[in-house]
TrEMBL record:
<dbReference type="GO" id="GO:0097367">
    <property type="term" value="F:carbohydrate derivative binding"/>
</dbReference>
<protein>
    <submittedName>
        <fullName>SIS domain-containing protein</fullName>
    </submittedName>
</protein>
<feature type="domain" description="SIS">
    <location>
        <begin position="25"/>
        <end position="166"/>
    </location>
</feature>
<dbReference type="GO" id="GO:1901135">
    <property type="term" value="P:carbohydrate derivative metabolic process"/>
</dbReference>
<dbReference type="InterPro" id="IPR035466">
    <property type="entry name" value="GlmS/AgaS_SIS"/>
</dbReference>
<dbReference type="InterPro" id="IPR046348">
    <property type="entry name" value="SIS_dom_sf"/>
</dbReference>
<keyword id="KW-0677">Repeat</keyword>
<dbReference type="InterPro" id="IPR035490">
    <property type="entry name" value="GlmS/FrlB_SIS"/>
</dbReference>
<feature type="domain" description="SIS">
    <location>
        <begin position="191"/>
        <end position="332"/>
    </location>
</feature>
<dbReference type="Pfam" id="PF01380">
    <property type="entry name" value="SIS"/>
</dbReference>
<dbReference type="InterPro" id="IPR001347">
    <property type="entry name" value="SIS_dom"/>
</dbReference>
């Protein structure tokens, strides 16, 4: 896992360079489509959450997350002739996702596959395949394949935006920012130490960074065997915040700019007042860093592309925490690299 985290700067640079030429094909494919639907599970679903926000905020395209069981179990007969369906799978072989893409195509959707395997079933059946050249990923927890998927989302959103190349200047900075975060590891050891002090944890973010919060929570669960809730700041405020007490460590993620920073800073102050064991902040601005107990610097990137770097400190924390707990971060208990939702099917 540590080695694959370290490979991310090069993997991101390759992915952005490789996929930029696909923007014209994506734009043509989507030109008469009103809605974009994402199909994914696990880490890929968290990448899709980012894609959904980016398409709506940057490209002005209505987007949503589809439920694969509508296709695979309910066999619903939907009219998808105005939809672009984007299926996201690291392996391209999760049967549920492959079946849902086929179902969508049969109902009039145009299809895009985002996968790390150009020879996969998902890629071969799609109208356009965004193949992320992250390289073989051996550790079960997704790291470089996940950030490569995020890079693919920026290419997709750019293709559907009024100005396809608008994000390119900041995207060019992403590999360097990720490399800096990996090399400095600022705050990582202290954050892992705080998280090791209790099994009770929650993770929160909002907006463009919400997918990052969900991915950080998933990594803590699968790699460190911690029962973790990943919640939007807004959903946390609507009730679940009542569980916070001296046994809880809160991990908060925020971009350095944008409309969500002030709310995440207020949340950090509130969690302190409620007696949380510790608050750990990844990213944010100086006010956010001052509001948490442990400040872990994030990338120097604007909010729209911050998630490509914002997840990296969380990956480093999770890998360090797993080792601290005596766990193998490469092979979490009972998991395999290619997950089938219904293994008996």
């Amino acid at each position: 896992m540590a080695r694959e985290i370290a490979e991310q700067p090069a993997a991101l640079a390759r992915t952005l360079s490789s996929l930029r030429p696909e923007r014209a094909a994506l734009r043509k494919l989507a030109e008469d489509r009103r809605v974009v639907l994402f199909v994914a599970r696990g880490s890929s679903d968290n990448a899709a959450v980012y894609g959904r926000y980016l398409l709506e905020v940057h490209a002005g395209r209505a987007s949503g997350l589809a439920a694969p069981s509508v296709a695979t179990h309910y066999h619903a007969d939907l009219d998808l002739t105005d939809a672009l369906v984007v299926s996201v799978s690291q392996s391209g072989e999760t049967q549920e996702i492959v079946e849902t893409q086929s179902w969508a195509a049969q109902r009039g959707a145009r299809t895009v596959a985002v996968t790390n395997d150009g020879g996969s079933s998902l890629a071969n059946a799609a109208d356009v395949a965004l193949v992320t050249p992250a390289g073989a990923e051996l550790a079960v927890p997704a790291t470089k394949s996940y950030t490569a998927q995020l890079a693919a989302m920026t290419i997709l959103a750019g293709a559907l935006a009024p100005e396809p190349t608008a994000l390119d200047p900041v995207l060019d900075r992403v590999p360097g920012e990720v490399e800096r975060l990996i090399e400095t590891r600022a705050g990582v050891a202290e954050a892992a130490e705080r998280l090791s002090s209790t099994a009770e944890a929650l993770v929160s973010g909002r907006g463009i960074a919400f997918g990052t919060a969900l991915e950080a929570a998933l990594k803590l669960e699968e790699t460190c065997l911690r029962p973790v809730r990943g919640l939007s700041y807004a959903d946390l405020r609507h009730g679940p915040i009542a569980v916070v007490d001296a046994d809880h460590v809160a991990l908060l993620v925020s971009a350095a700019d944008g409309p969500m920073v002030s709310g995440m800073t207020d949340l950090a102050h509130d969690l302190r007042r409620r007696g949380a064991a510790a608050t750990i902040g990844i990213g944010g601005d100086s006010g956010f860093a001052g509001a948490v107990d442990v400040a872990v610097p994030g990338p120097d990137l604007p909010e729209l592309v911050a998630p490509l770097g914002l997840i990296v400190p969380a990956q480093l924390i999770v890998e360090a925490l797993a080792r601290r707990l005596g766990l193998n971060p490469d092979a979490p208990r009972g998991l395999s690299k290619v997950t089938q939702t219904d293994p008996a099917a």
